[in-house]
Structures are given as structure tokens and as C-alpha cells.
């Protein structure tokens, strides 16, 4: 009898949990956030993932404010959106400069009246062994991945509070959950962004502002061409570009952008993309020590220090070689053509 009662209890608990999940899914679908006619500011939107996010938002009828440092890349993006019939404003801005950020926010508010959605996407990646990284690389990534998002958030939050609503999307990385060898400055700064973003989510939800922390796994945006490479730069670039291209390890930029916007639309606190990204994040959560030991083994097979060392920096496109131009990297090359990542080599 006790066994039967226990089984009945488990069945009722399972049924109740299933009903809760169904009701939650229905509520989330009914209360989805719409980006139509919303003013969306995207940093680093002239190429790569930022550009793909802007394309999808434009197709939904959002009003776009896109910023970047490169005037030519911004103009290429502007022409594309103008051809789509989208309402777009382009701003040349270095988001690591707080004064420039405030000027940008003021100009956007003057044109559109307010900012409904902020997407902190601007980023920088330096690839190479720890011995090749100087204090400059750490300062550069912290300025870009921590201070810049903080500047933009502090600038828009008061206005979002006045509106009683807003969406903020912070693009971190799986590298902001697990510190990866040969990407130490990048990972350290992305960890800082995760902490900032999670805290903002907890504190701002009461004001109707939803902050979503996004930790993409490897994403085929075409961005390897524009990473900074140090040490044995051709070898470093070859492994990085190849890893960025493998279909079973990576996700295309369009699918990633869709998932990001859906997560924000649903009001999710966090999104981790790619199966490999979810697996390694979960594994690290349960076995942080073992993860570090395994990554130590990976580090042994990565290029040793040397080459151009710590005093010189190369861009990805300057580091192309026979090892990085193979059938295994075709998908990244196609993505670079598609997502405005080619201009830097001109």
C-alpha cells in the first residue's frame, strides 16, 4: 500500500510540474517582448554578430542606432539597411570613452526620443600565449568588455526607468564562464562582464528592465580575420580560425542572433549557445578543477611562445597561411564575406 501511495504521489508531482511548465510557456509566449517600432542601440554593429542582430531587428521593424569606430564599415552597413527600407542612424563612437558614449546617447535620444533596447556587442579578441600578452592587452579588453558596457548601461538606465521598461543584452562569451588558454585577457574581461550583467539583472527587474547575459559558444561570424594575434601568429591564427569553423563545434551567426533575440524577448536572465558551449559550461560547473586540468593539457598542444613575441601585434588577415586557408576554414571565410568582415584588409 505504501509503495502504491508513493507511486501515486510521484505521478501527481510529475503532473503538477508538467502543468507548471506548460503554464509558464504559455505565459511567456503571450507576454513576448516585441522589437517592432522599438529604438535599439547596438554597439559594434558594423560587422559580425552585431550586424547580423541588426539585420534581424530591421526585418522586425525596429529603429536602429548602430555604432562602431570604423567610418567605412558603418557606411557599408548603413547602405545595406537603407536598401532594406529600415530606419537607421549610424554613429562613429569609441564606447571605451565615456564622453563619446554620452554624446552618442544624447544624439540618439534627440532623433528617436528614447532608447528601448541596448545591445552591448562591441568586442576585441587577442589570441596568443600568456607570455606574449602585456598589460596593454588586459587593459584593452577590460575597457571594451567591462567599462564600455557599464558606460552605456549607466547612460540608458535612467531613461528606461522613466519609461518603466527596457531590454539590455550583454554579449559575453563561454570564455566568460571558463577561462581559456591563449585567450586569458579576453576571458578575464568577459568574466567581469558576466558578473556585472547578472547583478544588473537582479537589481533592475523591479524597474521593468530585463538584462540578459549572453554567453555564445564559437560562432561563425567571420570575425577571426579581425582578431589580434601575438606570439607565433600564423600558428595561433590557424588553430583559432579552424576551431571557429567546425560545424559540430560552432553555430552560424544567424541562428545565434535569433536565439539571442528570443532570449531577450522571453525575458531570460541568461543564454548559452552551442551544444559544445553548454556541455563545457555544465562540466565546469560540476568539475571546475578537472576542467582546469583538462585545459592545461590542451594548452600543451597549442603553439609555444616565440614568433613576434609580446612587442608586436598582427591582425588575423595578416596571419593567413596554408594552415589557415584549408577546407576546414571555408565556413568562416564565407561568413566574413557575408558579414562585412573583409574591409579591414583594404
TrEMBL record:
Name of the protein in its database record: SDR family oxidoreductase
Sequence similarity: Belongs to the short-chain dehydrogenases/reductases (SDR) family.
Domain of life: Bacteria
Top-level EC class: oxidoreductase
PROSITE patterns (alphabetical): ADH_SHORT
Biased composition (Basic and acidic residues): 311-323
Native species: Rhodocytophaga aerolata
InterPro entries according to UniProt: KR_dom, NAD(P)-bd_dom_sf, Sc_DH/Rdtase_CS, SDR_fam
Record SMART domains: PKS_KR
GO molecular function: oxidoreductase activity
Biased composition range(s): Polar residues: 337-346
One Pfam family matching this protein: adh_short
Keyword Oxidoreductase on entry: yes
Ketoreductase domain ranges (all copies): 38-217
Signal peptide start-end: none
Gene3D superfamilies: NAD(P)-binding Rossmann-like Domain
EC number in record: 1.-.-.-
Keywords: Oxidoreductase
Region (Disordered) location: 309-346
